[in-house]
Automatic annotation (TrEMBL), chain A:
Binds 1 [4Fe-4S] cluster. Belongs to the eukaryotic-type primase large subunit family. GO terms for biological process: DNA replication initiation; DNA replication, synthesis of primer. [4Fe-4S] cluster binds at residues 307, 389, 406, 447. GO terms for molecular function: 4 iron, 4 sulfur cluster binding; DNA binding; metal ion binding. SUPFAM superfamilies: PriB N-terminal domain-like (SSF140914). The keyword Cell division does not apply. This is DNA primase large subunit. Keywords: 4Fe-4S, DNA replication, DNA-binding, Iron, Iron-sulfur, Metal-binding, Primosome. DNA primase is the polymerase that synthesizes small RNA primers for the Okazaki fragments made during discontinuous DNA replication. Pfam families: DNA_primase_lrg, DNA_primase_lrg_N. Its cofactor is [4Fe-4S] cluster.
UniProtKB/TrEMBL annotation, chain B:
It comes from the Eukaryota. This is DNA primase. Pfam families: DNA_primase_S. GO terms for cellular component: alpha DNA polymerase:primase complex. It comes from Penicillium frequentans. Belongs to the eukaryotic-type primase small subunit family. Its EC number is 2.7.7.-. NCBIfam families: primase_sml (TIGR00335). Keywords: DNA replication, DNA-directed RNA polymerase, Metal-binding, Nucleotidyltransferase, Primosome, Transcription, Transferase. The keyword Transcription applies. One of its GO terms (molecular function) is metal ion binding. Residues 1-63, 431-456, 484-505 are annotated as: Disordered. Residues 34-43 have a biased composition (Acidic residues). GO terms for biological process: DNA replication, synthesis of primer.
């Protein structure tokens, strides 16, 4: 690595600074005067702050990021997220625009806010660059925060900010624009008149989001982006830069090892970045007292959430599931406490049409892999955790002939309703509400609605006798939680007065 | 071990034995000097350990359903590797030049051995060693993975996460099994000329999009040996893309979406994106020929009902249903025509002509638009079967397909390994040794020391029907290497000066 770095220093400097010594060279102090509200966080901070500030600023930012992440796990719409986040931002991480200052120029208050924003970002970078998973989550949350602020920014300041970035965007000449008029109009959703927009020609790699959605015109590797899609481009730029620097930070991290003031703070911060519902610790989904074996799955499947139940029904119908279906289902079964041996037995019996040889050579390995029995990297932990709703919903690509994913999201509404009816949900009111939820893309709500409906008597009971607190009945965001809660509720009903 | 087999070979040594000498001499060049490593940190560390999970179901060794080729036994396989497999060209293709570099040396190969064991993370510094190892292991097939930041064989000595994929061709996989719900002639692993038409359409549509929209030029299409085709986009810009850009392209190209229960699979916004308009133009005629005539998809009442479900207007559907149930064997062409005919009679008061037109366009796309296995394209670490290996089930060679002549390609006339070995014997019988000397050197791009010794000996593949395919592959590589050199020169002129270009030869 070091040798490569040497190539990047221009040849004149190479003679003076040995790359090995370079890390001890005095940092070049760069005064930051924060002319803009937004920041792409290119330059690390160099001024001194106290340890208390170091910790407090980081915690404040962390609170905001954790909430943003929680909103996305709960599938809140951007508008809902905005109302939720705004008060928090004002409290913990205010960031005023230039116009909000008394005389329209950047005063000390704004500078302080911006400094805190800048410093806290870089402190958290240190805390969250250690593992791949943390880096990804941090980049995602930061990007959402940036997007949120960018949209809130007033348009004049936003323009000034963009101009200060010096991105290389080539603007499209009028001639070319008229020539491509038809294409531009038909590939840009919501556009009526061509001349309303300034068009930029950029490498398509800069706007992968637009390309993926097919909402931009492409020609020979260039994307023709209308001015109002700036957001997409800026976001891509922001994410790309952040990911790159997180990667670099992670390599530099070992140098901090000797520092006994910051390391504990940073470790503490990274441990606390988490909304509990996104992760699922081992054993959490196990239900005490339930005999979970290959032969009891059929019986238990009445407690499964719809995503798993439809997989189970498909499996029983076709005696086969495609790869991602098997993976999703296997991990779920692992989560409810089915042992590896029983799980292999379960699949063996379910794949009736396959010979033992076929089964052993084609399927068994994957089951063992999912359980962490084989393969994987021992240093990074074996096997996979059961999928959360987030993960199941996030699969954009349920392909032809596949049946995994979330039925609320991936089935057509009519098929979904049909499926619900076969599982015994026939109430017209509920089905209508589910249709509405799904129409508004609130898949979680729909699923929880069905849960509450099919367990309404039991829920009422535990609420009345106070055995379950409200926290026990919080929104379900994990299929295994769905199972556990459903199973426990039905058990309570079967054995009245046990508690 | 294969050595016992070797004695059965004709005494004439296969020509490939004298592989490029030049690479050996050039080994003194420092690898660092040939590359600037700027790209290293651009790639997110995608965990390589997922590969097994993701790729295993698709290429899982399928038992051969019909005994027609009774598989390809290991002797035949070995003879193929010794006499016919174009190791040198495969090397040049992956190496993008003649002097061995990291592009080839750090490339992962995954071998499926005769006993179905699966060996990942193999790598080879040179074409010679590559050939030697393949002859030794005699795999039933092998797959190609990404170029890693370090030699994949060293992965165990590195700390976790240090070996990262750096580049790989952007690949696409089209498999006929994904078409099972819309083809009537065959299902599963079998294929006929009628359903190959779907692959032909897919090649045309994807090829056009990659060239015209994304500006890629070096796209190698390869027959997968049985019922599908692969595309390898080899432009440097494509090879170096991180996963999110690959996902963007896969998303851009994917139109037919949804699982077995998601109902209408094509739902497009209007106006149609230029890519879709162009695809629709390509596919319209194919729909008329393949779906309506050859497949006659909508004859069965079940399929006709599926068609009706995709149409927007209830009363029109009822009218159609009545008409079709009175003549159960009405061919698809007439049924398709009935839609417009009945719509024009104005029987339905609620009918909106533009909705109907849109729905019909969606239907054409649902029944003809390429169905890609998108997962394969999205991840750099995905492995894909190498060109020119033998499909163990059919014995056919995975030959390149010229996208300009996609219509002419017939999977059933692709040479089989037994056929090719027979052709060599036939040729040798007609031209006994000694008469085959006067061959002009057709081997321009791969000139090497061995040619100076005298008139070039004819290579075995040139005696067979594999020749046109290898010639096509060679011209593809020549184009690729030419651009690669031009690109390098440009970089040298603009970038920081490194010493005289070691790639110059």
């Amino acid at each position: 690595m070091i040798r490569q770095d040497a190539h990047r220093i221009d040849s004149k400097r190479r003679a003076i600074i040995d790359p090995k010594k370079r890390q001890f060279a005095t940092p070049i102090y760069k005064q930051q005067d924060y002319p803009h509200r937004l920041n792409l966080y290119d330059t690390p901070p160099t001024a001194e702050i106290t340890l208390e500030q170091f910790e407090q600023w980081a915690i404040d930012r962390l609170k905001v990021l954790a909430e943003i992440e929680a909103c996305s796990y709960r599938n809140k719409t951007p508008a809902e997220t905005a109302t939720h986040i705004t008060p928090l931002l004002d409290k913990y991480l205010p960031l005023g625009s230039n116009t909000s200052a008394s005389n329209g120029t950047v005063d000390q208050r704004l500078k302080n806010e911006r400094q805190k924003d800048h410093y806290s970002h870089f402190i958290l970078r240190l805390a969250f660059s250690a593992t791949e998973d943390l880096r990804r989550r941090f980049a995602r949350a930061e990007t959402m925060l940036f997007r949120f602020r960018f949209q809130k920014d007033d348009s004049r300041e936003r323009r000034a900010f963009i101009e200060s970035l010096n991105l290389d965007w080539e603007s499209v000449s009028e001639e070319e624009r008229n020539e491509l008029a038809d294409h531009l109009i038909s590939s840009t959703p919501g556009l009526r008149r061509l001349d309303e927009e300034t068009w930029y020609k950029v490498d398509w790699e800069k706007v992968p989001e637009l390309v993926e959605r097919r909402s931009v015109f492409l020609k020979k590797g260039k994307a023709y982006v209308p001015g109002r899609e700036q957001l997409a481009m800026i976001m891509a730029e922001f994410t790309a830069r952040l990911e790159r620097s997180l990667e670099l930070t992670s390599r530099a991290l070992p140098r901090l090892d000797e520092d006994d003031r910051l390391t504990p703070i940073l470790n503490h911060l990274s441990k606390n970045f988490g909304s509990a519902d996104s992760t699922f610790t081992e054993g959490e989904g196990h239900v005490d007292g339930a005999a979970i074996t290959a032969s009891s799955i059929d019986q238990l499947s009445q407690h499964f959430p719809l995503c798993m139940r439809s997989l189970h029904m498909n499996l029983r119908k076709n005696h086969h599931l495609k790869h991602f279906g098997r993976l999703q289902y296997t991990l779920f079964l692992k989560g409810i406490g089915l042992s590896l041996e029983e799980c292999i037995l379960f699949w063996r019996q379910s794949f009736r049409g396959k010979t033992d040889d076929e089964f052993n050579s084609q399927y068994k390995y994957n089951i063992r892999h999912a359980y962490g029995d084989v393969g994987g990297d021992a240093r990074r932990g074996r096997g996979y955790p059961p999928y959360s709703c987030q993960k199941v919903l996030g699969d954009n690509n349920v392909g032809i002939g596949q049946s995994h994913g979330c039925p609320y999201r991936h089935y057509s509404v009519d098929n979904l309703v049909g499926l619900l009816q076969t599982t015994g949900v026939n109430d017209k009111g509920i089905l209508r509400e589910v249709r509405e939820d799904v129409g508004k893309q609130r898949y979680h709500i729909a699923c929880n609605r069905v849960f509450e409906f099919s367990h309404k008597n039991e829920i009422k009971k535990v609420k009345e006798d106070g055995t379950w607190s409200q926290a026990d009945l919080d929104t379900i965001v994990h299929p295994n939680v769905y199972f556990k809660r459903s199973y426990l509720l039905k058990q309570l009903a079967k054995a009245p007065g046990r508690d | 071990m294969p050595h016992s087999v070797a004695t059965m070979e004709p005494p004439a040594q296969p020509d490939n034995e004298t592989l490029p000498d030049a690479p050996e001499e050039a080994n003194g060049v420092k690898l660092e000097d040939m590359f600037d490593d700027d790209d290293d940190e651009e790639f997110p560390a995608s965990s390589a350990r997922d590969v097994k999970m993701e790729s295993s179901p698709a290429p899982a060794p399928e038992p051969v359903p019909a005994p027609f080729q009774s598989g390809v036994d290991s002797d035949v396989m070995l003879a193929f590797y010794q006499r016919l497999f174009p190791f040198r060209y495969l090397f040049q293709w992956l190496n993008h030049g003649i002097v061995p570099t990291r592009e080839f040396g750090n490339r992962e190969f995954a071998l499926t051995l005769q006993n179905d064991a699966y060996l990942r993370y193999q790598s080879y510094p040179t074409a010679d060693l590559f050939r030697k190892d393949i002859l030794k292991m005699n795999p039933s097939r092998f797959e190609i993975g990404p170029v890693y930041s370090t030699n994949p064989r060293d992965r165990k000595t590195l700390r976790g996460g240090q070996m990262k994929p750096v580049s790989k061709e952007l690949v696409f996989d089209i498999d006929m099994t994904d078409y099972d719900d819309i083809r009537t002639c065959c299902s599963g692993a079998s294929i006929c000329a009628k359903c190959w038409a779907f692959v032909t359409m897919a090649i045309k549509v994807i090829d056009a999009a990659l060239r015209e929209d994304f500006g890629f030029e070096h796209i190698l299409w390869v027959y997968s040996g049985r019922r599908g085709a692969h595309a390898w986009v080899c432009d440097p810009r494509a090879r170096n893309m991180p996963d999110d850009r690959r996902r963007a392209i896969a998303g851009y190209l994917e139109i037919v979406k949804g699982g077995s229960s998601s109902g209408k699979k094509v739902n497009l916004k209007r106006p149609l994106h230029p890519h879709i308009t162009r695809s629709l133009d390509i596919l319209k005629n194919h729909f008329g020929q393949t779906t309506l005539i050859d497949q006659d998809t909508f004859t069965s009442s079940e399929q006709a009902e599926k068609l009706l479900n995709l149409l927007p207007d209830k009363s029109l559907n009822d009218a159609l249903r009545r008409k079709w149930s009175s003549s159960p064997d009405r061919p698809s062409t007439s049924k398709w025509a009935d839609i417009d005919a009945l719509a024009k009679t104005g029987k339905s008061s609620t009918l909106n002509t533009s909705t109907l037109r849109d729905a019909k366009q969606d239907i054409v796309l649902e029944y003809t638009y390429p169905r890609l296995d998108a997962e394969v394209s999205k991840k750099m670490i995905h492995l894909l079967k190498s060109p020119f290996v033998i499909h163990p089930g059919t014995g056919r060679i995975c030959v390149p397909i010229d996208p300009k002549k996609a219509d002419e390609f017939d999977p059933l006339s692709v040479p089989t390994v037994l056929g090719l070995l027979g052709e060599i014997d036939e040729y040798d019988a007609k031209h006994p040794a000694g008469t085959e000397t006067e061959m002009p050197d057709a081997n321009g791009s791969a000139a090497n020391g061995s040619d100076i010794r005298g008139p070039r000996k004819m290579q075995d593949y040139e005696k067979t029907s594999l020749k046109p395919y290898i010639d096509f592959f060679r011209s593809f590589i020549a184009g690729l290497i030419k651009e690669e050199r031009a690109g390098k020169r440009e970089r040298d002129e603009t970038g920081p000066k490194i010493k005289a270009d070691p790639m110059e030869f």
